[in-house]
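Page 42, continued from yesterday. The earlier attempt failed because a stray header line got pasted into the input along with the sequence. Redoing it now with the clean sequence only.
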Amino acid sequence: MASLLATVDRKRLPGHDRVRLMKARARLIAHEQAELCADMIAVSEATEDALHRRPIEEVVDSAVWEIRAALNLTRRSAECQFHLAEDLVERLPGVWHLLRSGMIDLPRARVMVDETRHLDEGLARDLAEKVSAAAPGDTTGELRARLQRLIVSADPQAAKARYHQGLEERSVGSDANIDGTANVYGLHLPTAHSARAMRRINRLARAAKGRGDDRTMDQIRADVFLDLLLGSTRESHTGSDRGVVGIHVDLVTLVGLAESPARIPGWGPVISDIARQVVAEQSDSEHRVTVTGGDGEIVWTGTTRRRPTVSQRRQLEAETVTCVFPGCRMPAGQCDIDHNVPWSRGGPTEQWNMGPLCRHDHVGKHRGWDLKRVRPGVYRWVSPLGHTYEVMARPP
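This time it went through. Structure tokens are written below.
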């Protein structure tokens, strides 16, 4: 492939084929990165022979020094790259073969390594195998969420222990930037409380923007964050600012008969205890109910408590839980409901002609992209260069 691509003059290709060229080169890079990992392990094996089977710690240190000197790397970088190679080649060979074939790239391979590092080797390989079929079509965020859900399902008690151990390490910190600004952040915070806090910040920021604030949304959110911490009243607003957390959880887990992981849209899987806690704390909020058949097809949707939402939007949010652009994970509840065929061109406000799009992708859609809802939960995009991308929602 390298020889073939070296003969291609990209300037002479039509736009459609330039995308194919880019994808081919990305596969080639993934292949070479896998081979580089194998080269590093080969250096380690040769070092072991040269040192006449000294303790493994000495062998690894010497191999890392060799890699560091040969590739002009920092000590930290050499260590990280060697240990990633070790995990891929020796601990998760199936993932290494996916990388070598160009089916996934190095960032996705690193996600599979990082998310399974705390598991024993047998379980890590088993879970990596389970996500292998979907991994080539996932973004790193989608792949991480898929793995996290499998890990929680595989051993719910161990997941709870890891969660509570992580909470023990919670802290806040700050540091300075080179331009004289500063960062303030919290680490290892409870997921539900973090989601509630972010939802409150976003609500206040949107309210300010709606009043004609000329700051960007990121700037408003940052200022709201500081105002809340400092107790400032500068960010005046109307309406409730109570942080509500959306959560997707099956009924048997909610009532304590199972320990399946739940999901907070935009954050990912959470353990069953957190799901039950979130629902208990929001007993006066609207509950949206989706009944599905054995194949995941939606049979019925409805609400409990408070005034129901518009039925069309409720149905769309039930069948498609995120923005329908490829790889976007913005929760549908925070998206616009888009007319696939624009209203201005006669597109009806019917279920088959609508889908959730985040504000960014909603704007982008009108820049030459074509979108069609193929069937409930399945959307087909056609790019300006003629490439087709199909998005299939996960069953609710």
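Notes: The longest strand covers residues 298-304.
Reminder to self: strip header lines before submitting.
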